[in-house]
């Protein structure tokens, strides 16, 4: 079973730049809408919830269609809803932006229902060093494409990490699809 499903050029460079610009406006306007992860040994990144940003409905519509197709083509999971806002993370070299190995399935009532994780690469690969998204479905480590606009989808239970960003800033968008427990 291939666990990493990728859609190159799911979004154009111009569309990625529009998403980055929209979250940057929110960040400068309203610090309350901006999350800062607390456990810096696990993760250092700034977060913006897409549901808090006006004018990004087209992004969600595109992502829903991509998840639907990936599930038909590959995963065949019992997916029922998108129970959380997508989030845009910004990993900045100036504060060692990274996300250590983890699975997205959590203890909470919503996080426990996560079944697929989708990550959209928003930044131009040449605009940052490091910051690779790596997925470890079994013994081998797979690297997600760094190409701007590429979408990577994998089961939320698979371990994954974002290696530290050494220069520049990496922006990515994450969306989860939810459903009942595996059986
Ligand atoms: O930024 C990424 O590429 C991955 C983000 C992630 O793993 C998460 O939000 O759970
Ligand atoms: Fe994750």
Plain-language structure description:
There is one protein chain. By secondary structure, the protein is α+β, with helices and mostly antiparallel strands. It has a single domain (5-178), classed as Jelly Rolls. The chain contains 2 helices and 13 strands. The chain has helices at 13-29, 57-75; strands spanning 5-7, 34-36, 43-44, 46-49, 87-92, 98-102, 114-121, 128-130, 133-136, 142-143, 151-155, 159-162, 165-178. The strands form 2 sheets. Strands 1, 2, 4, 5, 7, 8, 11 and 13 form an 8-stranded antiparallel beta sheet that branches. Strand 9 and strand 10 (142-143) form a beta hairpin. The longest helix is centred in the middle third of the chain and has 19 residues, at 57-75. The chain is globular. The mean pLDDT is 93. It binds 2-oxoglutaric acid (AKG) and fe (ii) ion. The site of 2-oxoglutaric acid has 9 residues, from strand 12 and strand 13.
């Amino acid at each position: 079973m291939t666990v990493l499903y990728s859609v190159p050029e799911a979004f154009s460079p111009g569309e990625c730049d529009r998403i980055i610009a929209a979250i940057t406006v929110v960040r400068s306007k309203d610090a309350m809408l901006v999350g800062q992860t607390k456990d810096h040994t696990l993760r250092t990144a700034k977060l913006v919830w897409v549901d808090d940003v006006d004018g990004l409905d087209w992004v969600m519509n595109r992502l829903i269609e991509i998840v639907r197709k990936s599930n038909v083509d590959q995963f065949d999971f019992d997916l029922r809803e998108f129970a959380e806002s997508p989030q845009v993370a910004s990993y900045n070299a100036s504060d060692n932006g990274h996300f250590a190995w983890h699975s997205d399935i959590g203890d909470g009532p919503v996080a426990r229902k996560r079944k697929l994780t989708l990550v959209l690469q928003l930044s131009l690969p040449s605009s940052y060093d490091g910051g690779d998204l790596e997925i470890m479905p079994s013994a081998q480590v797979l690297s997600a494409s760094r190409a701007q606009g590429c979408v990577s989808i994998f089961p939320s239970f698979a371990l994954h990490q974002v290696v530290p960003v050494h220069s520049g800033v990496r922006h990515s968008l994450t969306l989860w699809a939810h459903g009942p427990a595996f059986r």
